[in-house]
Amino acid sequence: MDTLLDLYDIQGNIMKNYGEAGFIKARYLFFKINSGGQGRTFLHALLPYITSSAPWTDGKNNTDGVLWPEATTNIAFTYNGLKNLGISVQTLQSFPDEFITGMRGRRTILGDNGPSDPAKWDPVWHEEIHLFVSMEAPTDEAIEKRFDEIMGIITLNGLDKVILLDGHRGAKNEGTKKYQDASVLYENGVPTTKEHFGYTDGISNPFFKGMTPDMGELAGGGKKNTKDLLGYGDPELVSTWLPLETGEFILGHKDEALEYPTGPMPPLMAKNGSFMAYRKLHENVGKFNAFLDEKSQGYPGGKELLAAKLSGRWRNGVPITTYPNQKDADELAMKRQKAIQAMADAKIPAEKLEALAAFKEINKKFHAYDYNDDLNGGRCPVGAHSRRANPRGSLEFGHKKAFDSPTAVDNRRRILRRGLPYGKAEDPTSNDGNHGTIFMIINASIKRQFEFVLQQWINYGNDFKLANDKDPLLGNHAEINGKGDGRMIFGSNTMADDPPYFLNELPRFVETRGGEYFFIPSLTALRMIAQGIVDPT
Fold first, then answer.
1. Can you list the alpha helix ranges (DSSP code H) found in 102-243?
2. Is 394 helix (H, G, I), strand (E, B) or coil?
3. For labelling alongside 517, which of 78, 152, 239, 261 has CA 20 to 30 A away?
4. CA angle (460, 442, 402) in 5-degree steps
5. 517, 446 in Cβ contact below 8 A?
6. Percent of the chain with pLDDT over 70
7. Which tens digits make up the pLDDT trace of 296-307?
């Protein structure tokens, strides 16, 4: 039976990856609310701007949905934000402990030590943050317009207790800013999907029950069907993809354990909402480039294959497990880039929808795969970043199928990834500056999904039979006298029977510069909060 979701009640950033629809600019605002009454007035005035998950239409050929927006707007709350808005103690105490504690309090679990210690985060994160407002749009002009509209609400209503917090680190000699801007990176004036290390990012996201085809891809985004449900013994019946359970990502719906995830009371406060982990990640571009240059000199496969082994994908985003030949991977990546350009060039909604459909068809080859033919990691190392973050059923060592339990470990650790790069890496040899990735993780359980992946799969390797080896790209490697203590083992080229290659002295390439846990309510819950009528009884 299909799962029917009220898409008009679910905030759009949960169900939609805005970047895929050409919304390649973003601005993130963080507010402190010193008056519950003024905060509720602000929320009530914001409601007409909130983007839901309802389908977008041009209003002509198809009227089922809402008009394609000029800009999107979504909001979320910290625990202290809900407290300051007057939410009752009973409801506050019904939230999960990790959300109540907050990201700073969970820093040991998250591995935020050394240069990632919260004491070294941007100044804004030393404030008590209450409300998160995100805006995405195709152009800078649309972002500025929506920003002015939101700030105009505060001015028009005299909301002097609703404070936009300053303290986001700016570029060199720029000081701090009152907002965090983000944008896709450009090459020769053309928008790309790359991040500052040169990897194509944001390719694969989960697909779950209730999603429509325009929201993602079932193949690669769902879970492999490992059971012959009809009992016919046909191998074709057990090689298809099934959508994940909705409750892995949205509260008020059953998850992969066929249970309802923990959420706040009353039920209307939780239903159709989710939790988000916001992370500002600085990328040490100079350190990464120097490492590749040095280590590739002794690596038989060369620099680009070394980079691919670290990630699990070629830097153009093509998975190395299915495209071990770089020439083939480059040809596929070129087709994808042309499709991205077509989306950016589209002017009217009908053209945008057509371009999006064409892009998704090409994009399938970037995520509709598994590791069944590469279980020992001969092509894609078992410890590669993309394989650690999403094992795709390969944790059942020695078997050409995933776990067949409804509580399979990797089906219960999936996360929705949102966000964009920020800043510019002006000097490829320098680690200084303000550039990296805004990484937003949406899931029903911060502890079981985001925290588990970061603690057990990124900063520890036991599930992959790699002892305490960390993720090569995101691991919190320690450094002594300028040398990292990280290590990685993989084959010297794409042949599975080649001798292993030992890579050592991996440094910390990525540092945390801020972050917090947020609750993303449904539109119904937002109205309840704005009206002050959340009743836990």
1. 107-110, 140-156, 218-221
2. coil
3. 152
4. 55
5. yes
6. 92
7. 998 888 999 999
Separation CA 450–CA 468 (nearest Å) = 19
- Cα dist. 15→6, 11, 339, 450, 529 in Å? 11, 7, 22, 17, 22
Question: Which residues make beta-bridge pairs with 30?
Answer: 132
Distances in whole angstroms, Cα of residue 490 to Cα of each of 20, 383, 502, 503: 33, 8, 7, 8
Tell me how far apart the alpha carbons of residues 368 and 363 are, in angstroms, rounded to a whole number.
9
Beta carbons of 405 and 428 less than 8 angstroms apart: no
Block residue for tokens 């029950």: 209
Nearest to residue 274, comparing CAs of 537, 4, 14? 14
Angle at 497 between CA 303 and CA 382, to 5 degrees: 65
Cα first-last separation, the chain? 33
Could you please report the per-residue DSSP string of 303-339?
HHHHHHHHHSB-TTS-BTTT--SHHHHHHHHHHHHHH
Q: Mention every residue, 6+ apart, whose C-beta is less than 8 A from residue 500.
A: 489, 490, 491, 492
Q: Do 396 and 181 touch, CB atoms closer than 8 A?
A: no
Helices 36-46, 523-531: axis angle to 10 degrees equals 140
Question: What is the token pair recorded at 125?
Answer: 């994160």
Give the model confidence (pLDDT) of 431-443 as tens digits: 999 999 999 999 9
Q: What is d(CA 449, CA 443) in angstroms, rounded to the nearest whole number?
A: 7
For residue 266, whether the previous peptide bond is cis, meaning omega lies within 30 degrees of 0, is: yes
Estimate the crossing angle of helix 326-345 against helix 303-311, to 10 degrees. Answer: 70
- Torsion on CA atoms 310, 313, 315, 318, rounded to nearest 10: 170
Higher pLDDT, 216 or 197: 197
DSSP 398-443: T-SS---STT-TGGGS--EEE--EES----TT---SS-EEEEEEEE
